[in-house]
Each structure stands twice: as structure tokens, then as C-alpha cells.
Amino acid sequence: MSNTHPFRGPLCALLAGFSAISCGSDSNQADPYNGVLTSYTYEQPFDSKFIAQAAATGCIKDPATGKNDALFPAYPCYEPQQAFAKGSPVWFYNIGSIKTSTLPSPLPTTVADPKLLGGGGTHVDIFPHSCAPGAARDARLDAYDKAFQFPIFNTLPVATTAFGAIVWPIAATYGVNLTTNETCNDLKDSRSIADASNPGGGSYGATRTAQPTSYELMAIVDSTSAIGVPLPGQPLPGLPNAGWSYGWYEGLLLRYLDGGPIKTNVVIDNNGVSTTALQVMDGIILDPSSGYAATTDQKVILLPAAPGDDAYSPIVNLHDYTLESGKKPGDYVGICTASMTDCPANYALMSKAKPAAYATVFIAATPLQAQ
Hints:
This protein is mostly beta strands. It is built from 1 helix and 21 strands.
């Protein structure tokens, strides 16, 4: 692991010597609070998929008008992207794309495992209700909330030069059992939690499950960058349900975008070999009559399912569809598949898209963000 570049939480670095300032727990088993994680380290930055971009027009919106906030005209931010599914708009945060032909098919769950030489996904310990809530947070004095336990990540999405390595925003999540009562967020470091082979061997007797309990899209993002608001009337960044959550990495407080669970399926190949694979959707990207749309363009992506649907996945293979003369992004708001009858006129025919997907995109959307 590289040395991280933290900055301290509210008042803690300045006033740590005063007993009124709470930067952590008094328990001698509690992990130390080491500050806030940024998107770069002294040696390695985050992989480019996880870094905010500077939008020329800004992406912080006034919730009353939906217009760009003049105070943040070009601040680096994670900009909401509008797509469509089943006739309705869907907003998500785009966590980058990869050329589909370079990816294994089916996509095995092992992509969530961190790789020794770089790349891979992350393992995350999740146990929000296994702790005792602490005192209510005072935003002036407390660096973090103790109402529930934040997830604990064991790796960061740092850039790698390892040949063929891919940094995935995919997490294998593990449950945690405790034998001693922990105040929420006393645990901040995955190294304080024992593997199942050493039951009770962690702080507070913490032991993670032997196998993952789920797979999810969880993308660590820069804590110093803004996260845009999808629609007028939705919460401003930093307020509940704004699309991001808090987590920990080696005592550092981080933010991540939660794309939700990824279903798995057992796939058996022609040789009878079975693979537990992550569910992937096939979507459409609407291209102009000449050239190609960017996977980050607004209103060009059509999804076959919306967040919360059984068929939904935050991993989407995009098939190119050339817009007919007179058509523009936003005119099509859904996909008409071969199994559908009586498709609306504003649904694009999947049969007219290219059979082979070109790009696979990772998206962080929640049912709240589907409007």
C-alpha cells in the first residue's frame, strides 16, 4: 500500500489536545482516526475512473432552479449523467468504461479480489448494526458520526501499470461478528478484523465471514471534490440520500458512491465448467449519424432495466445504435427487445443496434435517483 495523503477532520488537528474534541473512541481497542482520504497519494493517484473531472459549466446545481451554482463554475466534480430506462429518466454517476472485448465473459466474481501487483476490486467489511451507537454527533466537534458502523475497505483504487490489470469498482462484501461490544466506528481498519480461520482474533473479537455475503458496486471517490445533484429538489451533496456514503480505509475517513448490489448467476460452459458470474445488462448507446457518442454524454444511454428491477445491474454492455435522420439524444427513452410486443414509438429497437457491445460502463444509481 502507498502512504496516503490525509487532511484532518473538523477542529481535530488543531484542538486534539482539548478533551472536548472527539477524534475517536477512548477504548484501547479502537482504531485511531487518521484524517480524511483524498483521491491521491504521495506515490500513486487513484485510477482515472475514480477521479472527479473539472466540468467547464460546473455541476453543482441550485436545487430551486436546476441551474449551475455560480460559486462553483468549474470545480472538480462527479457529474450526474442522465440516461433512460423503460420510458423514464434515470440519473447515475459514471464510474468509467472499459472496452468490452478486453473483459472476460462471463464476468467472474473474482474480479472483486484485489491483485498483488495492482488492479482488481476490493473487499469490504459491512456490519452497520453490530455496534452500540455513540453519542449524537456535534458537527462542530466530532470528525464523524457514531450512529452506525461505516463499511471498512481493504484496498484503494490506485492506478497501476501492471500489464493487463484493471481497477474495478466492484466489492466483495463480508459480514462481521463481534464478541465484545464496540461503539460504532471504533473499528476503522480491515486489519483489526480477523479472518474466519482465526475466530475472535480481531479487536472486539471481530471476525469476518469466510465467504462474501454479496457483491456490490462501491466506488471510492475524492473527498475534496463535489458530487453533483441529479435533479432540482433532491438533497444537496453531503446531506442524506445525496448518492454517496462514508467508509473507512486504515483509519482514514472516505466517501464512496454506492451503485447497489450486483446479482450473480452460475454459468456453465460447453465443457461443463461452472463459473459464478456477475450479472451484466445489455444497453444501447445512441450515436450520431457520423461518428460515435461518448459514454459520458447526456441522454445517450438506454438501459433495459431500472434500479430496483430484478434484471438491473450497475455493469452495462453498451451496443452502438446509429440515430436515424432527425433523431437526437432524448428522443428514445427505452429499449424494445425481441421478447417485447407493441413497443412504444420512442423505444429503440435492440435488433437495430450492433450485435457486439463496444464499451462496458459502470454506473452508480439508486432507486432514489430514478425519477
